[in-house]
Design goal:
Radius of gyration of chain B: 27 Å
Mean pLDDT of chain B: 96
CATH architecture of chain A: 3-Layer(aba) Sandwich
Mean pLDDT of chain A: 94
Structural class of chain A: alpha/beta
Strand content of chain A: 15-25%
Number of domains of chain A: 1
Low-confidence stretches of chain A: none
Oligomer: heterodimer
Number of strands of chain B: 22
Helix content of chain A: 25-40%
Shape of chain B: globular
Largest sheet of chain B: 7 strands, mixed
Number of helices of chain B: 21
CATH topology of chain A: Pyruvate-ferredoxin Oxidoreductase, domain 3
Order of helices and strands of chain A: EHEEEHEHHEHHHH
Low-confidence stretches of chain B: none
Number of helices of chain A: 8
Largest interface: A-B, 62 and 63 residues
Shape of chain A: globular
Helix content of chain B: 25-40%
Chain lengths: ~190, ~575
């Protein structure tokens, strides 16, 4: 099988490492060769962060390059726009519509672009945009945005729901399991 | 069972299985998780040392005693530890010793992009270079065999993309390895007479290691199409396979030093065109040129920054997929100090007092970023204090009255103390500010000698910073709370004005530490806020301007109250019922 590419993008501190951990676990248990590439260190401090998840029969490079991503899963709207050049021609964006102002916007040196969802669509990208923060709060915690997004992403994969559940169970602490399952379901059914 | 493992975790697994029983490291991205993972094994003694030199010497002592040992560090850490490294090459080892060093091509979290292979060549120490997690695991084990067989420490070179990528590993079981200590003055006491006899031993060893490199499976040939032959290593090998698959022939080098000769000449003779694909400096390429080969490399590929599959494909004349972009400018999102970061208030005060700030390595280097822009130099670990002394001595009273050094608690322990000793001894009228956030922050919360806890989180020795500075001869040592702007302002003014050197300890734990209790978030009373944007000067990610008034993001704000001290209109209020900010 040809290698498939999923990019998880967001703002440092938003919890994208759990999402990539869960995806890695899921895809390995489904029998694929998997590589996941993360960012640690300074960029994590509120900067733009990206995680690459690649799977297939045999994966070589650990990173995803421009024009290669089958999916961009974005925790924040501006980040979806930032990483758009990495999307494959017929790639799918799954994005949270939450907006977090970066420092140049906060200080007034730049403006947060308007109508990004429409502009992403106009670029020819397939865009699935949803209010993950609202759904996460509905599930019980604003921190569950990652599981809402994973639930939404699962929609596009031909994998049984119980496989997703097993990797969810293996990667979240038991005391938050119910909350996270609810967040996943809300994202999947959104 | 097959597992998905971070490259650094795979190194830890390899060390564990090889019977390594002593690990001493200093944290540094992208090397930190090797030692964090090691700390989870009860069969291995592990510790954070104050710096890389101490870590390497401790690991050397352990191997001398007969225990397989390891020390880990980032590329620039190896500069700090270069002194023991170059002479350990002469002494050799008793039990095996492995040094993990992680380069950061692309400078994701580093101050330079140096290529550690130069240290391996200069110190004449063998270096292994894995290209994924399975190799990281296997090479960690192999490194001990090489170390003991050839009587040498062995460098295990990681890079960001190998260290911080997860790929599949099939782990095995641990084997214990112990040796007895044997007194051997001629081998282990490196005074001139002995060292003179050891140098030829090093040269003979290198010749034997070259023989090993010619035939060891650590270097392998993968024959494919013979029009192009590519010599490559580390993560570049993965990019080459991604681009070319089996359409070209590949010589994949797992041993970066010493490099084989016959193997390369033989490979070159089987292909029409020879290309070297290596990140950073042209080390393999220059080696090929010394062998008299016609080779392409840095004529088409860059020396700066990391590689990727598209970069290599494009450089070697292949089509790459096109991306698309929006027509408009996407604002940058640089890293910022977190909400509630104790460094923020301190930097604001330094900026307000128009101080010249000589900085150091840590989260607080972000004090150089707008809108604070309150740091004017960052060089290396500990450099702030030593440079302050030179700046003040050379610049005189005018400099002494406005210039400060800022350095974190962990960085101060690493190599700030010796700079402080120089100020105490040679008496510049310098003001040093230790930013004590009670943890090693940027690398992800590692304990250090001032925190009172060891690598496993158990109670440990605790160095008292105030007592230490006083013992060095500083009469003026004072502690301030960086959440209290007035207190910090007074301290900075008074200590800069004082006629003798002083130390200010700005103390408050990192806002991300789990034990730190936060206040309720603040909110803005829009009737009181006049939109003067005073609060925007501190660069807090929780505060923005909405409809002309300040706005607090209550999912980020931790109620540190620094902003409310900036506001002349009392517009910030606590969201906790019945409380004023």
């Amino acid at each position: 099988m040809e290698t498939k590419n999923i990019m998880i993008v967001g703002v440092g501190g938003q919890g994208s490492l759990l999402a990539s951990k869960m995806l890695g676990h899921l895809l390995l248990s489904e029998g694929y060769d998997v590589k996941v590439s993360e960012v640690h260190g300074m960029s994590q401090r509120g900067g733009s962060v990206v995680t690459y998840v690649r799977y297939g029969s045999k994966v070589a490079s650990p990173v995803i390059d421009r024009g290669e991503a089958d999916y961009i899963v974005s925790f924040e709207l501006l980040e979806a726009a930032r990483w758009l050049p990495f999307l494959k021609k017929d790639g799918q964006i799954v994005t949270n519509i939450q907006q977090i102002d970066p420092m140049p916007v906060i200080t007034g040196a730049a403006e947060y672009p308007e109508n990004l969802v429409e502009k992403l669509q106009a670029s020819g990208a397939k865009v699935d945009a949803l209010d993950c923060l609202k759904l996460a709060e509905e599930a019980g915690s604003s921190k569950a945005v990652n599981l809402v997004l994973m639930g939404r992403l699962s929609h596009y994969f031909d994998l049984p729901e119980d496989a997703w559940m097993r990797s969810l169970e293996a990667n979240v602490p038991a005391k938050f399991l119910e909350l996270n399952k609810k967040a996943f379901a809300l994202g999947r059914d959104a | 069972m097959k597992q998905l493992m971070l490259g650094n975790k795979a190194v830890a697994r390899g060390l564990y299985e090889a019977g390594c029983s002593f690990v001493s490291s200093y944290p540094g991205t992208p090397s930190t998780e090797i030692t964090e993972e090691i700390a989870k094994y009860d069969d291995i003694y592990s510790e954070w040392a104050p710096n890389e030199k101490v870590a390497m010497e401790a690991a050397f002592g352990a191997c001398l005693s007969g225990t397989r040992s390891f020390c880990g560090m980032k590329h620039v850490g190896l500069n700090v530890a270069a002194d023991p490294l170059y002479t350990m090459s002469y002494t050799g080892v008793n039990a095996g010793m492995v040094i993990g060093v992680a380069d950061d091509a692309g400078m994701h979290s580093s101050q330079n992009e140096q290529d550690s292979r130069h240290h391996a060549i200069a110190s004449k120490v063998p270096m292994l270079e894995p290209s994924d997690s399975q190799e990281a695991y296997e090479f960690a084990k192999l490194a001990y065999e090489i170390s003991e067989q050839f009587d040498t420490p062995v460098l295990l070179k990681m890079c960001t993309r190998v260290a911080h990528s997860q790929s599949v590993v099939e782990p095995g079981e641990r084997e214990e390895h112990k040796k007895a200590y044997e007194k051997n003055i001629a081998k282990y006491v490196m005074m001139p007479g002995n060292a003179k006899r050891r140098h030829p031993v090093v040269e003979e060893r290198t010749a034997k290691l070259i023989e090993y490199a010619e035939t060891s499976p650590v270097n392998r040939v993968e024959m494919g199409g013979t029009e192009i032959g590519i010599i490559t290593a580390s993560t570049s090998y993965q990019y080459v396979k991604e681009v070319f698959g089996d359409s070209v022939s590949v010589l994949k080098l797992g041993m970066a030093n010493p490099l084989p000769k016959k193997l390369i000449l033989d490979f070159a003779s089987k292909v029409d065109k020879l290309i070297v694909v290596e990140e950073l400096d042209p080390i393999i390429e220059n080696h090929c040129k010394e062998l008299g080969l016609k080779v392409s490399g840095k004529d088409v590929l860059p020396i700066c920054d990391e590689f990727s599959q598209n970069l290599i494909a494009k450089a070697l004349g292949k089509d790459v997929p096109e991306g698309r972009a929006l027509d408009e400018q996407i604002p940058m999102r640089p890293p910022v100090m977190c909400s509630g970061c104790p460094h923020r208030g301190l930097f604001y005060v330094l900026k307000k007092n128009k101080c010249t700030v000589l900085g150091d390595i840590g989260c607080y280097t972000l004090g150089a970023v707008a809108p604070l822009s309150a740091m004017e130099m960052t060089l290396c670990m500990g450099g702030s204090i030593s440079a302050l002394h030179g700046f003040n001595k050379a610049g005189g009273a005018e400099c002494e009255g406005r210039t400060v050094a800022v350095i974190g608690d962990s960085t101060f322990m690493h190599s700030g103390m010796t700079g402080l000793a120089n100020i105490a001894y040679n008496q510049s009228n310098s003001t040093v500010i230790i930013l004590d956030n009670s943890i090693t922050g940027m690398t992800g919360h590692q304990q250090n000698p001032t925190t009172g806890y060891n690598i496993k989180g158990e109670p440990a020795g605790k160095i008292d910073l105030e007592a230490l500075c006083r013992a060095m001869g500083f009469n003026r040592v004072r502690v301030v709370d960086p959440y209290n702007l007035k207190e910090v302002d007074e301290a900075v003014k008074e200590e800069l004005a004082a006629a003798e050197p002083s130390v200010i300890i700005s103390r408050r734990p990192c806002a991300l530490l789990k034990y730190v209790k936060h206040n309720a978030p603040l909110k803005v009373n829009t009737d009181k806020c006049i939109g003067c944007k005073s609060c925007m000067q501190i660069g807090c990610p929780s505060i923005s301007i909405k409809n002309g008034k300040a706005h607090v993001d209550n999912t980020l704000c931790v109620g540190c109250n620094v902003c409310s001290q900036m506001c002349r209109f009392d517009a910030f209020e606590s969201t906790a019922a019945g409380k004023e900010a």
